[in-house]
Amino acid sequence: MSRRNALIVWGGWEGHEPEIVAHFFADILKSQDFDVTVSSNLDSFANESLVFSQHLLVPVYTMSKITSEQFEPIRKAVAELGIGIAGCHGGMCDAFRENTEWQFMTGSQWVAHPGNDGVHYSVNINTSNPHPITDGLSDFEVVSEQYYLHVDPGVNVLATTDFPLPGVDGPHTDNPCKMPQVYTKKYGKGRVFYNALGHRAKVLMADTPRELMRRGFLWAAKE
User: Fold this and answer.
1) 178: Cβ–Cβ under 8 A, 6 or more apart, which residues?
2) How many domains does the chain have?
3) Secondary structure class of 147 (helix, strand, coil)
4) φ, ψ at 56 (rounded to 5°)
């Protein structure tokens, strides 16, 4: 198999440890024979020749703003060229809040994390929806932020978490639901993978979250 290219761009809110996460992701991708470019400059996304030469784009950029010059090459790459995009937590689905097309492309937007950091919750694999990303994986426990998302109803849900949790109060408590936490979708010709875990890098470094990211990267890159 020929080597593939991946571009990781990190930055934004430092609380999500974007630099650590970016290099952790780079190590995963290098172990899968990707040539990886890691950048802390959003203008890397404005470089069409760089973006269009990738097989996978990995944003690790919470909040912040993205210009049309930086966003448009990403949109074209995914929708028109079929380049994959994959990410986690706020680094992909709480990024560039004013850009609704970003939300359309990535499939969800963070709106709350009742109980904040340190909540103990379960992530449940959707066994009724077999997929290579979750094949053979089991439900697992997490202590972190439990993401409540506004989600594109067209995503392919691979894992969920239950809201509300006992003892975690909030205006959501009378609306029990299974919230998507891991999903895939298509955006034009491109594949999109998202994992809501990752408030701290150590959450992603546990065995099952790491494996979900590894498989998600490969799936989005069409390996």
Assistant:
1) 124, 160, 161, 162, 163
2) 1
3) coil
4) -150, 135
Phi first, then psi: what are they for 124, rounded to 5°? -110, 120
CB contact at 8 A, 73 and 42: no
Q: For the chain, how long is the longest CA-to-CA vector?
A: 52
Residue 142 phi, psi dihedral angles, 5° rounding: -135, 145
3-class secondary-structure state, position 4:
strand
Whole-model pTM over 0.70: yes
What's residue 1's pLDDT? 53
Strand intervals (E) in the chain: 4-12, 34-39, 56-62, 84-88, 108-112, 119-125, 140-144, 148-151, 156-163, 177-187, 190-195
Rounded to whole angstroms, the Cα distance separating 18 from 204 reads 12
CA distance 91 to 94: 6
Instruction: Name residue, tokens 């949790």.
Output: 165
CATH of the domain at 136: 3.40.50.880
Q: What value does the mean pLDDT of the chain take?
A: 97
User: How many residues are listed for the chain in this entry?
Assistant: 223
Whose tokens are 């992603």? That residue is 204
Q: Which residues pair with 179 in a beta bridge?
A: 161
223 has pLDDT over 90: no
172: containing domain = 4-220
- For residue 14, give both structure tokens: 């430092």
| 204 in Cβ contact with 27 (< 8 Å) | no
